Each structure stands twice: as C-alpha cells, then as structure tokens.
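Friendly challenge for the regulars: who can give me the structure tokens for this chain first? No prize, just bragging rights.
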Amino acid sequence: MALFTISTWFALGTAGMALGTLVLAWGYTQLDDDHQPAFLELIAVTAIATVAYGLMALDIGGVTNARGATLYVPRYVDWLLTTPLHVLYLGWLAGADRRTVGTMATLQAATIVFGFAGGLIAAPLNLLLFAIGSLLFAGVVWLLFREVADAAHDRSDQRLALFRTLRNFVIVLWLIYPVIWLLGQTGFGLMDTETTSLVVTYIDVVAKVGFGLIAFSGLQDISFLETALTDTDAAAPADTDAAAD
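First reply, four minutes later:
Bragging rights claimed.
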C-alpha cells in the first residue's frame, strides 16, 4: 500500500487551506475598516478551497474523462469561484472601473469553464477548448498589465507597489496551471493523476494562502505609512504656531 495517495495530498490541501483561512480571518481583525470589506474576498478564497479539498479528500466529486482518468469537479468549481475573486481584489486595489473589473472576472471564469470542458473530452477537441481558454486568460493578463495597471498609477505609491506584487505573484503561479493541464491526463497524458494532484495541491495552497498573506502584509504597511503621514501633517501646524510664539 502506497504511503502517500491522492487522498493524502487532498487532506494536506484541506489542512493548509483551513489553516490559511484561520490566519487570514485573524488578519482581517487587524486591518483598518476601509481595508476589511475587500479582504473578505481573500478569506472566502481559502474557505471555498477548504471545502473543495475536503470533498476531494473524501473522494466526492470525481468524474471520468474521455481518457479514462479522474477529473475532480470540486477543484474546478473552486477555481471558477476563487480566481475571479482574486481578479476582483486586484481591481479594487488598483481602483479600476467596474466595467474593466467585470470584464476581467468574466474572462477568468470563462477560462476555467473551457479548461474543465476540455479536460472532459478527447483529442483533438480538448486542445481546441484549451486554446480558447488560453486566449481568454491572455485577455485577463492584458487587462491587468494595461487598463488596471494604468488605474493603479493614480493610487498611492504603496498601493501601486502592492498591486504589482500581487499581480505578478498570481500571474506567475497561474501560468503553471496550463502547463500541468497539458502534461496531465487532461492533455497529452505525460503526467499521472497522482503527480498532478500533488503539484496542483501545492501550487493551490501557495497561490491562495500566499496571496492573502502578501495582501495582509502590504495593507498593514499602507496603513502604517498613511497614519505616519497624517500624524506628520497634523503636527506641522502646531510646530509652525510654536515657532511663531
């Protein structure tokens, strides 16, 4: 009997996401009031992933694709819900307009739908759907580097820096998923389901929990700097009055 199975990786993923949810929930209580509503999206990301991984650990939600391999529906439902939440958060942080943010979220959700549909069917149609999904994702990346980035330039230097860090972090990690899709049983079948599950679980935890932790740290820095600037501005008139006396 193998020491580590797919259920093991899913159980570890459940634990990692649950712990991340608790840490982010604590972090929420430490944030300024104006940062809290949007941060709830990041708590929701890890909470949704906790449920998804818990279901997969219990062997719930698996379907057989055209290659005869198991495709996990909870994983794709997780991504369908959580990846647009990350996009929404980046849009909020940058101060992008609703049309742009809505377009990004829609494109990102459609990317997941085409990835799932492609994973179910046989070649070569699976690769066609994968290509469509990839083009949709390219649209998300384009918007993040153009329109959303332009909006972020109107924010403070600290917010702009945090936006860039989170954008680059999540895009680099998200670019790994299409490679796994192609190598795994959804694509060319060069990677077995067990290995795919291990790699995806690891990247999922890093991407979701890591994104939240980076956001929390950055928001704390922003609050500290904004408070320091406010205190400095408040002290300046008092210093001027004292000098006049």
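Residues 193-244 form the longest helix (52 residues). The chain has one domain: 6-214. Your move, everyone else.
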